Amino acid sequence: MTDEMPGADSTRSDPAADATAVMDLLVGGGIAQILHAVAALHIADHLADGALTADEVAERAGSHAQATYRLLRAASSLGLLSYEGDRRFGLTGRGRLLRDGVPGSLRSLVLVQTGHAHWRLWGHFPEAVRHGASQAREALGADVFEYFARPENAEEAALFSSAMADMSGLVTQGAVAAVDTTDVATVVDVGGAEGQFVLALMAAEPRLHGQVLDLPHVVEGARREAGNRGLSDRFSAVAGDFFTEVPAADLYLLKTVLHDWDDEQCTAILRNCRSAAHDGGRALVVEMIIGDIGKPDFATLSDMGMLAMTNGMERDLDEFDALFAASGWRRDKTYPVGGGYHGMELVAV
Ligand SMILES: C[S@@+](CC[C@H](N)C(=O)[O-])C[C@H]1O[C@@H](n2cnc3c(N)ncnc32)[C@H](O)[C@@H]1O
């Protein structure tokens, strides 16, 4: 330990401030469930037209009046709601992000990340660290994608796809603006969920034809989304397995797919893309990139989520380059695309 590391020298630390700091970290799980309750009870939707009293919110939400008042009070202390006096609460900018079906909404993401599958997996997190692997089989009886594919989990799976779509909004604009589509006519969004990324690219470039490759229970959502955007004539969705085969294309999009898998599995996915690509073909990988250790870095926290949920991980640039080199790709350009994500453009070698 060096003198430069804050708190490294316990003789100089402030025990009371340190205890408060640790307790602030500890309450993070409870805060996540406060977000869950606000989202699940549609509190932000009830307040969309103006401030209401806690009793009025409880009546609309079908929830207990005093418990709802306490929830709204806590949410206002977190900056999700404003307090207008006399037990009346209004929406803040942050709270508005918990509305259902509005542009930029994070409601589905909140619901899925605080819902059954994710929460159970966090409950097994110390075991995941002990064994170096997600405890999904112990917690859910299946890996997370098998779990979502089960008919009885269809509602949670739909929420997961829509959460991915909500998150996509944060980065697709930046990626669409930055990616080089010179000489590109066909694009496959590998593990593309509802196709937010490829559809945004197609909307920006009317000559592009796009496809989503995803699991059978997911692709119908992508077809529906293409229809909603009036892009069905240039779009198709393929139900398949990216470990088996990937359709041919000029450009592959892999957005937050590699972080779900270990190195061997990532190499298999990237090799399948390389086999289907022509020489000089391109791919765009969008992921968080882990930066300098010891500095605040959201990617390292997301990495813990990947350990809890999947076989995957967040990676630093050297780790990405090793994957690309092992699978017939070379990284050509790297740029931030917003929301803490980076685009890494690859060329087939
Ligand atoms: C983390 S999500 C990313 C979705 C999308 N690319 C995005 O960024 O919004 C991973 C996606 O991979 C899909 N997936 C998982 N296993 C797959 C497989 N073996 N073959 C094809 N898709 C798969 C999932 O269904 C899910 O849609």
UniProtKB/TrEMBL annotation:
Q: Which SUPFAM superfamilies match?
A: S-adenosyl-L-methionine-dependent methyltransferases (SSF53335), Winged helix' DNA-binding domain (SSF46785)
Q: Can the keyword Flavoprotein be found in this entry's annotation? A: no
Listed A to Z, the keywords are:
Methyltransferase, S-adenosyl-L-methionine, Transferase
MF terms in GO: methyltransferase activity
UniProt-listed GO biological process terms: methylation
The record's listing under PANTHER family reads:
O-METHYLTRANSFERASE CICE, PUTATIVE (AFU_ORTHOLOGUE AFUA_4G14580)-RELATED
Name of the protein in its database record: Methyltransferase
> What's the short name of a Pfam family annotated to this entry?
Methyltransf_2
Q: Does the record carry S-adenosyl-L-methionine as a key word?
A: yes
Tell me which species this is from. Nocardiopsis sediminis
Q: Where is the O-methyltransferase dimerisation domain positioned along the sequence?
A: 30-98
